[in-house]
Amino acid sequence: MSLTVLTGVRATRLSIVGLCHSVQGTSQRLAGYLDIPYEQLSWRLAGINHQAWFLELNRDGKDLYPLLKERAKESQIYEQDPVRFEMMRHLGYIQTESRGHASEYSAYFRKRPDLIQKYDRDGYRGESEFYANNWPDWRAAGDQKIQRYLSGADTYQLERSEEYASIIVEAVETYQPAVIYGNVLNTRLIDNLPEDGVVEVAF
To answer: Which of its termini does the chain have fewer beta carbons within 10 Å around, N or C?
Structure first.
């Protein structure tokens, strides 16, 4: 994401924002861990793509981090997200990237077989070779789905997803303000990261 956005910014005069759904997915997951309605959760975060951090996590102005840290001690909660909860325990904040990718981007969790055994779980929770093992089936299922649309056997239903693209288009076309988290050139948006790099922030 960072390289793609940086290349586009340097090579063109286009207004470019890189979109990732880690913020939406993680914030929904956090609302579940906290057992509160998603629409009551508010946050502020910043960082780089796949390594942005929830700097604030609130409900009606109340800091939810103490509650999240307590909930993370419960086995049924911890087991859903062991890598990110370990990072939160040691660094103070939870980061945006999915449970499996978090271990891939932080070498500590994969540097020895005993650590993989301790922290990584099946599926999206860090299973080694998860994507490689499942991609052939995912691709085949996707191809079948497309063929059913093309043949008329199924009708495509147009629905808004959690992705930001339709929100951006609506905001531009209707002049209605909207807040998204995206990847853009760091124009002093995060002052302790390089200005010629790409950061993920709200705008």
So the answer is: C
